[in-house]
Amino acid sequence: MNIPIAKPIISNEEVKKVVNVLKSGMLAQGSVVKEFEDRFAGYIGVRSAIAVSNGTVALDIALKAAGIGRGDEVITTPFTFIATANAILFQGAKPVFADIDPDTYNIDVNSVLENVSSKTKAVIGVHIFGHPFDVKSIVEVCEDHDLILIEDAAQAHGAEYEGRKVGSFGIGCFSFYATKNMTTGEGGMITTSDEKIAEKCRLIRNHGENSKYNHIVLGYNYRMTNIQAAIGLAQLEKLDEFNERRRRNARYLNSHLKVEGLVKPYEAKNVKHVYHQYVVRLEEEFPMKREEFMEYLSRHGIGSAVHYPTPIYRQPLYIELGYGDVKCPVADDVSSKVLSLPIHPALKEEELKYIVEVVNSVA
Ligand SMILES: *Cc1c(COP(=O)(O)O)cnc(C)c1O
C-alpha cells in the first residue's frame, strides 16, 4: 500500500465548472468569485466573504483592515503554521506568543491574559487541526481589554463551536491550499459581518480602488480568479461530506488504535472537530522514538508528518528577531511529541484497517 498523508478529491463537478469558466473567457476575478463569496458567507453565517489569493494574504489583509500597525502587539499561538505569526510581522507589529492547552493544542486563555499589555491590539486564535479554540473565553478577554479577534480558520472549514461555525466570531481567515479541508489549489477567504471591515478588505485586495482608476488607500493585487472560485464552488458543496468522512475516519482510528503511550486526539464536548489533521502524541511509554516510528510507517507505505516540530519562537527567523528567551513549556513539550497520521476523506476502509494494523504492530 501507499497511503499519502493528504490527498485532495477532485471530480467531475470541479472539472465541469472550470471548463465553463475557461470557455466563458472571463478568467480573472468576476461573477464566479462573487458567487463563491456569497455561498461561503452563507455557509459560515456571516454577512460578507472576501475571496483572496491564499490564506497568508487573508491574514495580512485582515490585520491591515483591523488597523494593526507599527508599535502594536498581537497575541497568538506559537504552535501553528508560520504564516499566522508572519502576518503580524508584515504589519511592523510584534507577535507575542501565549502558551497552548495540552489537550486541544489551542491557545490557552490564561496565558493570553498574562500577555495582555497596554500595547496589545488584537488576538489571533488558530483553530488548530480543525478543533475550535475556546471561543467563549477568548471573546471575553477581547471584550474586557478592547482587543480585535482574528480567527485563523485555515484548518477549520465547517468546524463548529457551540453549534456556530468558526470564522463567524471574529474576522475569519481561511485557506484553500490543496491539502486543506476544501481547496481551490491556492486560495483564501476573509469572513466578517462588519461592513466597514469588509469594505476595507475589498479595497486592500484590489489596489485601494473604489471606482475605476480611483485609488483611495494603498492596496495590492491579492485577488482570486474565476478559475479558482469555480473549483471552490464545487468543493464547498462537498465540504460537509468531506468533513463527515474525516470524522468517521477519526472515530475508527480512535476506537482501534491501541498502543501504550499513544495519546489520541481530544474533542471537547461543545465543539465539532473537522480533523484537518489526526494528531497523536507519543509519550515515554510508546515503544519507538518519533523519528523511528515515522521511518517504520514509511517503510510500510504510510505517510505521516509532524505538525509542528518547532514552536515559532524557535524558528531561526524569530531567534534572529530576539525571541530566543520566550518560554511556552506546553508548546515545547507538545511539538517534541506529536505526529499526524492520514485522516483525509479519500481514505478507503481497507487503508484505515491497514493503518491500524501497522500502528498496533509496534506494541
Ligand atoms: C495553511 C495555513 C495558513 C496559510 O494558508 P496559505 O493558503 O497556505 O497561505 C495559515 N495558517 C494556518 C494555520 C494554516 O494551516
Helix and strand topology:
Elements: H1 12-24, H2 31-44, E1 48-52, H3 55-65, E2 73-76, H4 83-90, E3 94-97, H5 109-115, E4 120-126, H6 135-145, E5 148-152, E6 160-161, E7 164-165, E8 171-175, E9 188-192, H7 195-205, E10 209-211, E11 214-215, H8 226-256, E12 262-263, E13 271-272, E14 278-282, H9 290-299, H10 316-320, H11 329-335, E15 338-341, H12 349-360
Parallel strand pairs: 2-3, 2-4, 4-5, 5-8
Antiparallel strand pairs: 1-9, 6-7, 6-13, 8-9, 10-11, 12-14, 14-15
Helix pairs in contact: 1-8, 2-8, 3-4, 3-7
The chain binds pyridoxal-5'-phosphate (PLP).
Pyridoxal-5'-phosphate binds at residues 54-56, 80-81, 83-84, 126, 152, 154-155, 175, 177, 188.
Number of helices: 12
- Straight-line N-to-C gap: 21 Å
Query: Low-confidence spans: pLDDT under 50, at least 5 residues?
Result: none
Q: At the third CATH level, what is the topology name of the largest domain? A: Aspartate Aminotransferase, domain 2
User: How many individual domains?
Assistant: 2
Question: Largest sheet at a glance?
Answer: 7 strands, mixed
User: Strand share of the residues?
Assistant: 15-25%
Average pLDDT, all residues: 98
Output the structural class: alpha/beta
Portion in helices: 25-40%
| Structure ligands | pyridoxal-5'-phosphate
In brief, what are we looking at here?
It contains 12 helices and 15 strands. It is an alpha/beta fold and 363 residues long. The strands form 4 sheets. A 7-stranded mixed sheet has the order 1-9-8-5-4-2-3, with helices on both faces.
